[in-house]
Design brief:
The protein is α/β, with parallel strands linked by helices and about 525 residues long. Helices cover about 25% and strands about 15% of the residues. It starts with 6 loop residues before the first helix and ends in a 6-residue tail after the last strand. The chain binds alpha-D-glucopyranose.
């Protein structure tokens, strides 16, 4: 390990959606023992850390993002003892383990909320966000739930409305209450004491709301087909200035342990996103950068975005990149299977910590879910808009065996119909498979500090081509990637295309000498190791 860089700067994070990774007890839902059984695969793949989406007790209204006890494991996933075993086995392999922390809201079944709603005088009443009805008896303001409908629900017993940015089964905590803050920081300590290496913090930009609960402005660009909550801009319900003090308090907890990290889920434009590093680095270690997910797949757009992002980073801000997660359509469906290989190269060679989503390494795509099998509440509340997240949450495809080797039982979501072909077992020894590409990219990255932590420098390019250099000391790599479906040649004005191909997304050009220009096939990206005499 370099003295100048932390594990979460050099390493690659692999997200596991635990319901869908590996079922060990035959109930059709993945579990902790299943993850443990697959640790050798994860190590073999070549990543450094796993992030596991919520595994805590939950009524599963939002599949674990509605937590009814922050300091235990849901029986569907296992037990605390099994968690400790998983953690120990993860560490034994030199891997890190990151858990999900969901500070914005609890389940409505959490004892805190049960107490809070029991009466206006209950000491925990103020732990959540309660407001009297508007004069007409309606909700206190115009805020909308991210999952459709109003963000306020009237509770008969107290005669007040409570706020929920997501489902009504997910009431928002009141982070302005000092007791809430202390209780939630204790949750972090509970898991950090057990030895977890970090947390992915759910919707961190949501946790504080406007003190005056002003109406959100209407969105002038709202139109049919958009998610219903986009009708208003979340100006007063998210990204409030006070959030940074709270994150700094969380950060203080992490700093007391050393070598732990916090990555924040934040969907905001870059200039707002970078404020989450906090003043002088007192914020999250990494604010998730979702630009490769959100931007059109176009070379010039992405080139500009990388440049703007690099320029916007504060001196203490370490970059990061993400291609997919359990909330977003899979990359292979978004850009196509051929471009997904180019995307993998970008993810693992741009400057910053990459986060992979399980299954992307074998090119899994979104699986269409027939209406009677829909699980996701988002799809149920706003059907037919393509917002449902089940398609990207289907079980991992391990082999061509029954249920893809995921489970002995009927899986909780249907498997992709191509699983007999697209799976770990068939791709493992295939020299040209997506899995082999990911392994080779990960291995190259791990062996070259220039790719892990080196400087980034954009190189002018045109059309569908994106070109950039990564350098460290006397090592230099030139990436030339073709984001289009046509063959093209790349020739730079400066004498930069000199060296040897270390890796092509097609996995068939290693060692080829290039001089002056390089030809790229459709959907091809290459990593060129630059000869020493030509370093710039
Ligand atoms: C985050 C999670 C998402 C969840 C939501 C509410 O965006 O990633 O899955 O539904 O928060 O907790």
């Amino acid at each position: 390990m370099s003295a100048t860089h932390e594990w979460w700067q050099r390493g690659v994070i692999y997200q596991i959606y635990p319901r869908s990774f590996q079922d060990s007890n035959g109930d059709g839902v993945g579990d902790l023992r299943g993850v443990r059984d697959r640790l050798d695969y994860i190590k073999w793949l070549g990543v450094d850390a796993i992030w596991i989406s919520p595994i805590y007790p939950s009524p599963m209204a939002d599949f674990g993002y509605d937590i009814s006890n922050y300091i235990d494991i849901d029986p569907i996933f296992g037990t605390l003892v099994e968690f400790d075993e998983l953690l120990a086995e993860t560490h034994r392999r030199g891997l890190k383990l990151i858990l999900d922390f969901v500070p914005n809201h609890t389940s409505d079944q959490h004892p805190w909320f049960q107490a809070s709603r029991s009466s206006r005088d209950n000491p925990k009443h103020d732990w959540y966000i309660w407001k009297d009805p508007a004069p007409d008896g309606g909700p206190p303001n115009n805020w909308l739930s991210n999952f459709g409908g109003k963000a306020w629900t009237l509770d008969e017993r107290t005669g007040q409305y409570y706020y929920h940015a997501f489902l009504k089964q997910q009431p928002d905590l009141n982070w302005r209450n000092p007791e809430v803050k202390e209780a939630m920081l204790d949750v972090l300590r509970f898991w950090l004491d057990r030895g977890v290496d970090g947390f992915r913090v759910d919707v961190i930009w949501h946790i504080v709301k406007d003190e005056e609960f002003r109406d959100n402005p209407l969105n002038p660009e709202y139109g049919p087909g958009q998610p219903p909550h986009h009708e208003v801009l979340a100006t007063y319900s998210t990204d409030r200035p006070e959030v940074h003090d709270i994150i700094a308090r969380m950060r203080g907890v992490f700093d007391a342990y050393g070598e732990r990290m916090m990555v924040g889920e934040i969907y905001l434009p870059v200039e707002r996103l970078v404020t989450y590093y906090g003043a002088h680095g007192s914020g999250v270690h990494l604010p998730f950068n979702f630009q490769l997910i959100n931007l059109p797949w176009n070379a010039r757009t992405i080139e500009r975005a990388v440049e703007n992002y690099e320029a916007a980073l504060p001196p203490y801000g370490w970059p990061n990149w993400v291609l997919g997660n359990h909330d977003q359509p899979r990359i292979a469906s978004r850009v196509g299977s051929a471009q997904a290989r180019v995307a993998a190269m970008l993810l693992l060679t741009l400057r910053g910590t990459p986060t992979m989503y399980f299954g992307d390494e074998i090119g899994m795509h979104n699986v269409p879910i027939p209406p009677h099998l829909v699980q996701d509440p988002f799809e149920k509340n706003a059907p037919g808009l393509g917002l449902g997240r089940d398609p990207q949450r289907t079980p991992m495809q391990w082999s061509s065996e029954v249920n893809a080797g995921f489970s002995r039982a009927q899986p909780w979501l249907p498997l992709a119909d191509d699983y007999a072909r697209v799976n770990v077992e068939t791709q493992r020894d295939d020299p040209q498979s997506m899995l082999t590409l990911y392994r080779r990219l990960l291995a190259l990255r791990r062996s070259e500090p220039a790719l892990e932590i080196g400087q980034y420098r954009p190189i002018p390019a045109e059309g569908d081509i994106l070109a950039y250099l990564r350098s460290r000391k006397d090592r230099q790599f030139l990436m030339v990637v073709n984001l289009g479906g046509h063959e093209c040649a790349y020739q730079a004005e400066m004498p930069i295309v000199h060296g040897r191909i270390a890796l092509s997304t097609h996995l068939d050009r290693q060692g080829e000498e290039v001089q002056g220009s390089v030809k790229l096939r459709p959907d091809e990206g290459v990593i060129i190791e630059r000869g020493e005499s030509h370093l710039v």
